[in-house]
Design brief:
alpha+beta, 5-stranded mixed beta sheet
């Protein structure tokens, strides 16, 4: 099972127990890069809110290839309601 997480401090990461060569063809085109500890990460995501589009793209691509992926709920920043005009 692969676990996809996002935190502001670490960015978007994927814990992956599978060999790199099995998941690289799916992850690299989306922009993922391997880390020496066996995890994968999306560069440039630390310090940023989660990107629901790339997370959905990643989970869909991995599931199409038969992998089981878990993801925590992604919170997107709430949009402010427009100010009423007077």
């Amino acid at each position: 099972m692969l676990t996809l997480t996002h935190s502001t401090a670490a960015g978007t990461e994927l814990e992956c127990p599978h060999p790199r060569d099995q998941v690289a063809p799916v992850l690299r085109p989306i922009g993922w890069r391997p880390r020496p500890d066996g995890r994968w990460r999306l560069p440039g995501t630390a310090g940023q809110p989660a990107d629901p589009r790339r997370i959905a793209l990643t989970t869909a691509a991995l599931r199409r290839r038969g992998f089981t992926v878990t993801t925590p709920p992604v919170r997107t920043p709430a949009r402010r309601a427009p100010r009423p005009r007077h």
